[in-house]
């Protein structure tokens, strides 16, 4: 019986490529089996990563600027564009922006043990004079730090979670796996042990967080998607909206199946919807700048939701 393929996160694959490519560039041509063994990958996994590396390069991403990697069942060989051999020279503005982004990333939950990023910041400080001039202030939230710790140790925790759809809180037993930021809100990817499936929880809707003292073996848990975010399944309903320019933020903030520009700068988007109340609140926020094209049952949902909200204050 063939073993199931190992789940690897995108970040893990990219980090591996950053190590493999200089190693390969120094040797030019190597045995594919030797390279797989060196980096503790199967030949199939290595082939997938090398294919991904072939899409890396510099603008305008023409064949002359892309990394050319060739491999067959026996060997791997590489041709690195000359632009990668030139010393990297940053302007003061570029160095400042890079330092600001790096400092901010290092302060995010889960990044405390990022030795590579910390080392890069120290080297950047040695080459610039912005060390004392740049101060990054990140809001400190003890809950985020606690969740990041639970993610690191695969702790089983209990929490109460509020659902705006039902207007009720329910108790959950979960294993936190990943904390991430989208727009103005923090989210937690966790395994809901009640159904043994990955679920996304908005952090500001969580309360009564309690550590059970139990640590769960991560290998027994269902795998998460490679990247954090909202991953919709086939059960999600497809809703088509026409958005005026003032509502184009909908396509920027939320995942969409497709989008296309129409006349008068109207944007047509098809987005996944799993909750009519959620869609109603979205339509209220967008106002008259968003029109439901299909399905027809949602055509007046925005107006009905607005009326329900107003009735609470009457």
UniProtKB/TrEMBL annotation:
<dbReference type="Pfam" id="PF19187">
    <property type="entry name" value="HTH_PafC"/>
</dbReference>
<feature type="domain" description="PafC HTH">
    <location>
        <begin position="12"/>
        <end position="125"/>
    </location>
</feature>
<feature type="domain" description="WCX">
    <location>
        <begin position="236"/>
        <end position="307"/>
    </location>
</feature>
<protein>
    <submittedName>
        <fullName>Unannotated protein</fullName>
    </submittedName>
</protein>
<dbReference type="InterPro" id="IPR043839">
    <property type="entry name" value="PafC_HTH"/>
</dbReference>
<dbReference type="InterPro" id="IPR051534">
    <property type="entry name" value="CBASS_pafABC_assoc_protein"/>
</dbReference>
<dbReference type="InterPro" id="IPR028349">
    <property type="entry name" value="PafC-like"/>
</dbReference>
<dbReference type="InterPro" id="IPR026881">
    <property type="entry name" value="WYL_dom"/>
</dbReference>
<feature type="domain" description="WYL">
    <location>
        <begin position="143"/>
        <end position="210"/>
    </location>
</feature>
<dbReference type="Pfam" id="PF25583">
    <property type="entry name" value="WCX"/>
</dbReference>
<dbReference type="InterPro" id="IPR057727">
    <property type="entry name" value="WCX_dom"/>
</dbReference>
<dbReference type="Pfam" id="PF13280">
    <property type="entry name" value="WYL"/>
</dbReference>
